[in-house]
Design a protein that fits this description.
Elements lengths: L4 H4 E6 L2 E2 L2 H4 E6 L3 E6 L24 E5 L5
Antiparallel strand pairs: 1-2, 1-5, 3-4
Length: about 70
C-alpha cells in the first residue's frame, strides 16, 4: 500500500512557484514499492497529457523543492 501524495506533501515548489499536484505529478504502481509518483512525466493524475516543465536557472532556489512527511516515527 502507498500513501496519498496530498497527505504526504508538506510543500512543493517548482521554480519558486507552488506545485499543482494534479497536473505536475502522475502515479504508477510498482510491484515492490506499491504506489509511486513521478514529477514532470508528461501525464497528469488522471492520465491526460500535461506540458513538460523546464528549469532554466540553476541554484538551490530553482528547480523542484519538495518537503514530505514520511509518516515514520
Amino acid at each position: 500500500t502507498g500513501l496519498y501524495l496530498n497527505m504526504s506533501m508538506i510543500s512543493c515548489y517548482f521554480n519558486q512557484r507552488p506545485c499543482r499536484l494534479e497536473e505536475m505529478f502522475s502515479y504508477y504502481l510498482d510491484n515492490y514499492y506499491g504506489v509511486c509518483f513521478r514529477f514532470n512525466a508528461g501525464k497528469s493524475m488522471n492520465n491526460s497529457v500535461s506540458r513538460r516543465l523546464n528549469c532554466t536557472n540553476s541554484g538551490p532556489m530553482n528547480g523542484l523543492q519538495i518537503k514530505l512527511f514520511l509518516h515514520n516515527s
